[in-house]
Amino acid sequence: MNKSRITSFAIALTALSLWGGAAQAQHNDQRLNKAITDAAWYKKAAKSAPSFRDLLKRRKAAVEQFRAIPTSALQPITIKAFATAEQRAGTRHVIIREHEYFNDSGYNNGGFDLGIGTPDHVIAAIAGDLIDSYVTQAAIKGVAIDSLAINIKQTGPSLQNWGLDYTIFIDSPASDSQLEELRLLAEQNSPLYQFSIRAHKVNTVLEYHKSADELVIPPTYQPGLREFIEWETRKGEANRKLRESGQRPDKSKFGGYAYDYPYSRKNPYTPAQSDSYLDPDGPSAFINPSSGVTVLQVRHHRVLQDHPLFFGGNDLGPTAVESHVGLLGSCFTHVAEGTAARNKIALDTLNVSLTAQFDPRSGRKGFEQTPLYPTDIQMRVIISSPRSEAEIRQLVADTERGCPIYNLVTNAQEIKGRIKRVTAYLK
After folding, report:
1. Is the overall model pTM greater than 0.85, yes or no?
2. Among 366, 357, 281, 308, residue whose Cα is nearest residue 13
3. Which residues are CB-contacts of 332 (< 8 A; sequence separation ≥ 6)?
4. Eight-state DSSP code of residue 25
5. pLDDT for 89-109, tens place per residue?
6. In what order do the strands lie in the sheet with 147-154?
7. Residue 77 dihedral angles phi and psi, to the nearest 5°
8. What gap in Å lies between CA 381 and CA 86, rounded to an integer?
């Protein structure tokens, strides 16, 4: 391995300004207003927008500027993420630098459909990192691409074996052998692909706080996490009784959960040249060629992944690696809620803070053996509860065993990929 290795995460350069100045902003507003009222004009404007080949040129320039940075000027990065279980709804709130998002399940999985569920989100994050690596490697190798998108599925039978399977949809004049070489390079240089095919240790530390056995409720009090856990317990017991009697869970009770709600509904706002061939029934990702931002799609939800300014992006979202670290905390809080509800353990606060190390010098001279993926994962679980510390420690241990993302991280995964040629519908 040598200094030519460039990961999708480690592209350091000054921020690229795609649309500069007030005059250009006004022009963009005019284009948008015209597009809203004139469908034919929109189609013409979409064709004249920056193309995928323009994105490859910008990415190549980013790679060259990154390579020009002296190794002595690069330092390891500490990735930080914070996840908390929101008091009233039990949704997971994730904060990464100045970015934040909510994770939630669909109605058919007992959630309020306020965001992407964590297993699907982390699968989409891996897909997003892979597709970004395809762009970087295509820019380095000079492989022309006109459209690129990815679908990914979980086919594994257990928490420990996810069995991820992805399809890259590509419109390119390159030969089959060139595209196969591109696939191998993209996988070799995708931090999350390489991270996922290896097993890692997560160092978990519990910060326990004893809370009162009986809460004093002020007049303006709103239901908190303890009430949410109790509500989850009642819901689970009621649904268990229905299943034991041969009935389906009652979707009219406990918040109107619709167990027959379809997994997905289509998002009608699909970008040109990207996802006309994406399957809405699974996690997907595509890259906006104008900005280079990676868009993750699960059900009708969309989340952005991007690079910071000093890594060549626009900092419109967390990086794929940052997202993966944050999603570990998000999933842990979700499973801890359900585990607490099943065991009738009252919780008053449930927060998880995480750190990991990432080294952008990976592959350079003297750092050939430095991993290109995150290492040294530290997870601090902060819980306040009226139950004893011993019971909470057992809750944390049970949560680790049942947390999908924790098992994804701590067990090596198999990921299979293939390329499928398509023709972009706008050319």
Report:
1. no
2. 308
3. 83, 352, 379, 381, 399, 400, 403, 405, 406
4. H
5. 778 889 999 899 888 876 656
6. 301-305, 294-298, 284-287, 147-154, 164-171, 415-421
7. -115, 135
8. 15
